[in-house]
Amino acid sequence: DEAEGMYFIVDGEVHIKLRHTTLKLGPGDFFGELTLLKKVQRLGTVTAAARSHLMMIDSGDFVGLMMRNDELRARIEQVADERLAGEWADVTADVLVEEIVKNEEPLRPMGDPAA
Question: What CA–CA distance (Å, rounded) separates 64 from 102?
Fold first, then answer.
């Protein structure tokens, strides 16, 4: 599925089922950034493990926010890179490395004529 946005966990717990593992995320964690930053399809299936409250930023607003806030963009990119290199390393079994490299173009807001 194409990414619709990035999700922030306000409270509760979600599980992300990848091909060979299931990850648990809780309050303060976020997910969905990999699909937006790397322009790949979703990497896993997310289900709520308990009653949860999430905040979502849609893909268009995400792009605008990343363009306006370098510090926030750097932090989200750092977490995404750490996930791909560390605890989410198994994701490479679900997404081709060539696909990630091929799609590393600058983010542009939706409706941008240069896109």
Answer: 22
Q: Calculate the CA 24 to chain-centre distance.
A: 15
Instruction: Evaluate if residue 90 carries a pLDDT over 60.
Output: no
Q: How far apart are CA 86 and CA 52, in angstroms?
A: 26
Q: What CA–CA distance (Å, rounded) separates 14 from 109?
A: 29
Residue 77 host element (H or E): helix 70-85
Please give the residue that has the higher pLDDT: either 71 or 44.
71
Question: How many whole angstroms separate alpha carbon 72 and alpha carbon 65?
Answer: 8
Beta-strand pair 53-58/5-11 = antiparallel
Predicted confidence (pLDDT) at residue 41 exceeds the cutoff of 50: yes
